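JOB MANIFEST
job_type = single_chain_structure
chain_count = 1
residues = 370
[input]
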Amino acid sequence: MLGVRRLLSGCPLGPVAVLICCCFQPKQPLFGPTKNPLSTQSPTVTDTALIDIQRIQEIAQAVRENVARVIVGKDDVVELLLVALFCEGHVLLEDVPGIGKTTLAKTLARSIGGSFQRIQFTPDLLPSDITGVSIFNQQTQSFEYRPGPVMAQIVLADEINRAGPRTQSALLEAMEERQVTVDGVTRPLPYPFLVLATQNPVELEGTFPLPEAQVDRFLMRIGLGYPQREEEREILHRFRANNPLVEIKPVVTTDEIQLANRICREVYVHPVLEDYLLDLVNASRSNDALALGVSPRGSLALYRTSQALAAIRGRHYVVPDDIKHLATPVLAHRLSPSVDARLHGRAITDVLATIIAQTTVPVEEVWSEA
């Protein structure tokens, strides 16, 4: 009783406040973790990461199955397209005519719930045909902007190397800064913005090589290649009556793509793997067979695509095979051969394969975050 009197007399808040605190003292601390085993605990970081990765796999599987209704085989190509989609990067599909580049691009675009525009590149195409133009309105006595096809979320640039360099360069600002400037006015592009460009090999008649600055803005370059014999037989049967492309409906939304992009950026990359990636990049810059090595934009592209590939394959962390698998499609188109390499006919892919083989692959028992 004496202790209570001392407590009451010494409290600056008065005896009433002390009595209230004593009577209503909680059995558990007000702050910090509770010791009650029956209480509901929030999921750990690892649990949350696994849930996010599972959602990524669901989105990827939905797109895979939808594309497979039209495209026969090419599972590896579709996986790379998904990587680019989840990284919000642009893709250059390069191969000979008739392989299915345009069909693949249109199928992927239709699988995504968003606006879609196709630009057929021809030698007489003008930059204003891509970005839009300001037209004088006689009723309002003012100029009005008429948006070009580039103001869509998914843009198919078909046979992009059929147009001249001036027209090709009209996509530079849109691809890198996701905006277009017409008559001094800058307008943002919708989200997400993805360019799927197709091109034929430069050796074919009527083609113009893409500027190096524009090539570097493509996240990756993918070649389809000829189908296997039985795959081609399936193509004959599938397209015998009707084109299955007309039946393709969207299976994912733009919000889901934005969610996938956020999840992929949170995939863990071990510092040792960062060193491995930088070793590959620096080796390309000091190689005698290359006149132009990988740019920092290319390093960042390889980093982000490795994160996306790991998520698609069900991991919340990157492993060395992710980087090795993506090195060629992400880096090869950014390299330029030296004069000596051109004279000896060395292919860029062969030079890059040598760099990958000579770079020491790190060994680690656990690549996930500690």
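[summary]
The two ends are 54 Å apart (CA to CA).
The chain has a mean pLDDT of 83.
exit_status = 0
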